[in-house]
Design goal:
single chain; alpha+beta; 18-stranded mixed β-sheet; about 20% helix; about 40% strand
């Protein structure tokens, strides 16, 4: 008997994405829905979860509707919560291991599939176009930008080196006034393990710093691919939790790869799920 037929409230999971171990990477909540819910309810639940994103997944035949909410707003694209959602569908045997996860989203059709211990996702590329440095950007980040551009809804700022990315202590209210979604701070990685490093700040949508940002790599991949002359790259996001993202450039698309770990699973209380 299905959850809907049994009258059970939706299942809820917390998944650490872009990591192979618990309590690292980027946590996302994943709520499995049996029917449509009001936007206001989903937004209230995302605020209650107080994670950078809460994903709502609803079956629609051979695919799934997927929506993402920060604590304050719905967003057009989220990599780590897509990874977490696909992980849950295989973990709960809603999809067989060899099946592709197909999601219909505000950014179009997204797909995910298993690749060994990793999950691969097909996302739209968001190449960078150089732009003038917005007034106050350097002061808000506390550093001197080497390059400034726009990729999709985000600003991308190249710093002088990895140390500058690590040391940045941005002014969140100031950054919120400069970008309608977020600011990607990046530099070439030191050593040979990674190609580039990054951090992502999105105070404009209620997330002062995102631990690991899959969607930002739709911009970071093309940016560093051009500069390094590579189509396969490995990035490290230097938040306190940290995370690793593989990027394969596919023309107008990018393939993002990451791992995921479930850390909590349960159901909403009946009174919380109208």
């Amino acid at each position: 008997m299905s959850d809907a037929a049994a009258g059970k409230p939706p299942r809820l999971f917390q998944v650490d994405a872009f990591t192979h171990r618990p309590f690292a990477g980027n946590p996302a909540a994943v709520c499995l829905l049996d029917r449509s819910r009001e936007d206001s309810w989903m937004q209230a639940m995302a605020a209650e979860m107080n994670l950078s994103e809460t994903a709502f997944v609803r079956p629609t035949g051979e695919s799934f509707e997927l929506r993402w909410f920060t604590p304050t707003t719905e967003v057009d694209l989220c990599g780590h919560a897509t990874l977490a959602s696909a992980h849950v569908l295989w973990q709960e045997e809603i999809l067989r291991p060899a099946e592709t996860a197909r999601f219909d989203t505000r950014s179009g059709r997204l797909t995910a599939w298993r690749r060994g211990e990793w999950i691969a996702m097909d996302f739209p590329a968001a190449p960078v176009a150089a732009c003038p440095e917005p007034d106050g950007l350097g002061e808000a980040l506390g550093l001197e930008p080497r390059f400034t551009g726009r990729g999709g809804a985000d600003l991308l700022v190249e710093a002088a080196d990895e140390a500058a990315v690590r040391a940045a202590r941005p002014d969140a209210p100031a950054l919120a006034r400069l970008s309608r979604r977020g600011v990607i701070l990046t530099a070439r990685a030191e050593g040979n393990r990674f190609d580039f490093v990054s951090r992502f700040f999105a105070p404009a949508v209620g997330v002062d710093e995102d631990p690991v940002t899959g969607s930002a790599h739709c911009t970071l991949g093309p940016f560093w691919g051009e500069r390094l002359g590579k189509s396969s790259l490995l990035g490290c996001q230097l938040s306190a939790r940290g995370g690793v993202v593989r990027v394969e450039l596919r023309g107008e698309r990018v393939e993002l790869q990451g791992q995921a770990v479930t850390v909590m699973a349960g159901r909403l209380a009946p009174g919380a799920a109208p």
